[in-house]
Amino acid sequence: MDKDRVEGSMKSVKGSIKEGVGKAVGDTKLETEGKMDKAAGKVQNTVGGMKDTLRNRE
């Protein structure tokens, strides 16, 4: 498994937590940061998945 997949998954989880806390306390800045972290994590996870696919084809 590519390290990008692991790091991307961790960013996504961190983003979900930030988003939830932001919603709970009414902090729109924290909620937005969480959404951005989640999106960045999903992109990084996808890149890692593509790397894994290419590596497995060799």
From TrEMBL:
One Pfam family cited in the UniProt record for this chain: CsbD
InterPro entries membership: CsbD, UPF0337_stress_rsp, YjbJ_sf
Domain CsbD-like, residue spans: 4-55
Family, as annotated: Belongs to the UPF0337 (CsbD) family.
Protein name in the entry: CsbD family protein
